[in-house]
Amino acid sequence: MKKALILPILFLASVGLSGCGQQAQIVGNNSVAEVSEECVSLCSQITGVCPTAISQDQCLRACPTWSAETKEKIGAISSCEQVAEVPELASAVLPEMNEPDLAPASNDCEAACGSYVSKCLTLVPNASEALFQEGLSSCMRECASWNAGKVDCMISAFDCEAMTNVCGL
Predict the structure, then answer these.
(1) What's the predicted TM-score (pTM) here?
(2) What DSSP state is assigned to residue 76?
(3) How far apart (Å, rounded) are the C-alpha atoms in residues 98 and 157?
(4) What percent of the chain has pLDDT over 70?
(5) How far, in Å, CA of 52 to CA of 36, rounded?
(6) Which residues are registered as beta bridge partners of 24?
(7) Are 86 and 76 in contact, with CB atoms under 8 Å apart?
(8) DSSP class of residue 79?
(9) Mean of the pLDDT values across residues 59-78?
(10) Exposed end of the chain (fewer CB within 10 Å): N or C?
């Protein structure tokens, strides 16, 4: 009687642990989500070709949202260099790419332009207050089109040369 009970239990346990059932992946907050065979295959392929490009979990989370065309491009990847050519992979790794780069706040522009006036315009021999005011006004107009990275660079630049060479003034 014991053998009759033990054998079916062992069989069911081995089938359950073998992974022969439905494909599933732990995603996010430990909930189990079904993942298509196509996504499992694509993600295995991409992490095999370029393991540093995207993690298996990131890929499996993003894959269901990819179009057939994107999946086709990813399926054709054979080197890490080609990974950069698929924007959907980059946005899966860097979700901030999907967010627009907000225009800098006016007080950030004031700080960046104040830094410009104090580090660059003060180098002009015999500079007048009018030159400083015109430089500040001109800088504020230009700053409206700068991204946050350039504004931060201008604020933290060590000197005028750094503003020119590093920040792209």
Answers:
(1) 0.39
(2) T
(3) 28
(4) 68
(5) 23
(6) 34
(7) no
(8) S
(9) 85
(10) N
